[in-house]
Design brief:
This protein has 47 residues and is mostly beta strands. It has 1 helix and 4 strands; from the N terminus they run ββαββ. Strands 1-2 form a two-stranded antiparallel sheet.
Length: 47
C-alpha cells in the first residue's frame, strides 16, 4: 500500500520525482487487491 500525497517528493534510483510520475509507468498487473479484515460493512479491500 502506498499512501502519500501525489505531490510528495520521492527519490527512486537516485532521481528525484513525485508519486504521479513514478507510478504512471506501472502496468495494471503491478497492483494487487488485499483485504485487511472484515469491517462493519463487510470486507475492507485495498488496491
Amino acid at each position: 500500500m502506498l499512501a502519500i500525497s501525489y505531490e510528495h517528493p520521492l527519490v527512486l534510483g537516485g532521481a528525484h520525482t513525485g508519486a504521479d510520475p513514478a507510478l504512471a509507468g506501472l502496468d495494471e498487473t503491478a497492483w494487487h487487491r488485499h483485504s485487511c479484515a472484515d469491517g462493519v460493512k463487510g470486507r475492507r479491500w485495498y488496491e
